[in-house]
Amino acid sequence: MFNQQSNSRLTYSVRKNNTISYKQNRYQLPKGTYSPGKEVLLSLNGDTLDLLDVDTGEVLVTHKIATGKGNLIQEHIKGSNLLALKYWNTPII
Questions:
Q1: From residue 45, how far is each of 6, 16, 17, 91 by CA, in Å?
Q2: How would you classify residue 78: left for phi > 0, otherwise alpha for psi between -120 and 50, otherwise beta?
Q3: Alpha-carbon distance 47 to 92, whole Å?
Q4: How far is CA 35 from each of CA 2, 31, 93, rounded to the nearest angstrom?
Q5: The pLDDT of residue 81
Q6: What is the pLDDT of residue 51?
Q7: pTM across the whole model
Q8: In the 3-class helix/strand/coil scheme, how is 5-64 assigned residue by residue?
Q9: Torsions phi, psi of 49, nearest 5?
Q10: Pairs from 13-22 (Cβ < 8 Å, separation ≥ 24)
């Protein structure tokens, strides 16, 4: 289901219902994120997780990490169209 990208970043396959599964919970991505073979980068930041576009580094959504199991996490802290320069060394043009 996932491949290790680095110590704190992992890639996850996006499901048809625009979710990824992390630690037995499902986290919602924006509508229309799914496409066949689509993956997102998951980055942990304390008690939150960022889901980023693998190709562009765009932060798609940030969620608070759930403490339970078997939950669908739909409420998000933020959704952004900004490039996550803390993860990518690509300048904005």
A1: 14, 26, 25, 22
A2: beta
A3: 28
A4: 16, 11, 27
A5: 38
A6: 95
A7: 0.74
A8: CCCCEEEEECCCCCEEEECCEEEECCCCCCCCCCEEEEEEECCEEEEEECCCCEEEEEEE
A9: -130, 140
A10: 13/37, 13/38, 13/39, 14/38, 14/39, 14/40, 19/72, 20/51, 22/49
Tell me phi and psi for residue 68, to 5 degrees. Answer: -85, -165
Cα→Cα distances 50→8, 21, 93, Å: 11, 13, 23
- Parallel, antiparallel or unpaired: strands 25-28 and 19-22: antiparallel
Provide the terminal-to-terminal Cα distance of the chain, rounded to the nearest Å. Answer: 34
What is the pLDDT tens value at each position of the chain, 93 positions in all? Answer: 444 433 467 999 999 999 999 999 999 999 999 999 999 999 998 999 999 999 999 999 999 999 999 999 988 776 543 333 344 434 333
Write down the pLDDT at residue 8.
64
Q: How far apart are CA 76 and CA 93, in angstroms?
A: 28
